[in-house]
Amino acid sequence: MLRACSLNPLSAFRTCRGIHSTAAKQAIPVQAEPKEKRVARWTPKSIRTGVIARKRGMTAMWDDQGARHPVTVLQLDNCQVTANIKSIRKDNTEYHAVQVAASDKREKNTTAQMMGHFKKANVGPKQIVKEFPVTPDAHVPVGTTLSAIHFVPGQFVDVIANSIGKGFQGGMKRWNFKGLRASHGVSVSHRSSGSMGAHQDPGRIWPGKKMPGRLGGVRITTQNLKVVRVDTALNLVFVKGCVPGVDDAHVMVRDAKKVMVALAQHNHAKALFEKVLPKGVDDLPFPAGTQELAKTLPPVIEAPSTRTSPFLPRE
Amino acid sequence: MSTAAASATPYPFSKIAFVRPASTIDQPILESLQKGKGLMPYLQSALVPSEKQQWIQTLFSKRHPDRLQPGSVVTVTTAHAPNTFSGVVLSIRRRGPDTSFVVRNVVQRTGVEMQFFVNSPHLTNIKVVKKPGDGGGRAGRRTRRAKLFYLRHSPEKMTAIAGGIKA
Asked: For the domain B46-163, what is the CATH code?
């Protein structure tokens, strides 16, 4: 080590604090690493945004064990993020939401106010604009186009839409009343609701009495539907079961509150880390499944069956 | 690094999910399908595996000369029990991938009907033993109905159609 230093005392003074070992001489100089963007990951406490899709129809699919499942086909129709909302409630808690819009619309049919809103988001005019409450880490950049890859086959979703309107309906259809007999002297009231209350006491009809009225055409949530297949080329999400609404209606699709969000939080708190996500689901695209992500992933993904074959006899 | 990761785990969000290849669609058709135009008719044929396309286009079409007709006698082979089932076709329900048909027979003095779904992986073979209107006499011509549910209440007509066949 002394040999490496020069004999000149001044230079020795200057260089004695330098590193002269062989290891240091052979070491590769450290290059300045570019600041890596921390990739957001899903946590059991996060709530992701939902999407707006269109109900296209129903068909049937057979899983790998040969069991038939009825499925509803939902298609994302240019679903884009238009705003990230953060507001403070009166009790100083924060409300965070992601506002999403879908289905392009003609500019001539859009009001000036909405045009301004869409221009601010750098997005074309849309037919439907809805927001999904999220946790603060799940905000999505404004203008991002969401894709069917947002959902993982095997996960559960809630689907919200307006049910089919049935018009003014009687008690039998609206409230499952039994009606009256078909014969034995019943006159002209076979499907009527019968009596509406007691007599002089209370002498009125209770508020909320079930009576004929308008049925359907209201917001309905169908919960815990399993995602069976995802097709990114056509932006299709196949969910098992029925979904409210007519064909081509707009539906909101989000992670199931009971079977996904709540279970993830509870199982994480109980340290049951294997049960945080449903069987077969390892991770969720976070903060959202975008078109860019869909290009890097396979085009069609299907969920396997997670139960023993129903065709095998039980012991 | 991203390409290595992509080839190592094709779909990182689920290890056990099935990954299927993309089906080739022309660009103008793809654009209209993405808007939803003609999507369900496209899925009617796209969701049927290639082995069953043949059946959908011949046996279960509406105008093919070799189509399955109600009133014909068939033998159906399945992968699960009962492995073979023969009988008279009562009805055909055409729904693309959800196409099904009902076959009726009298087994050990009990009327039995079975509904078979064409797309089911367990359905292996459909053999037409006798076309409607093959034999002369009482069941001479084709049936004048699409759904033959009246056969449930007339065993003599069933015998006229399917009697004496060793299927």
From this structure: 2.30.30.790
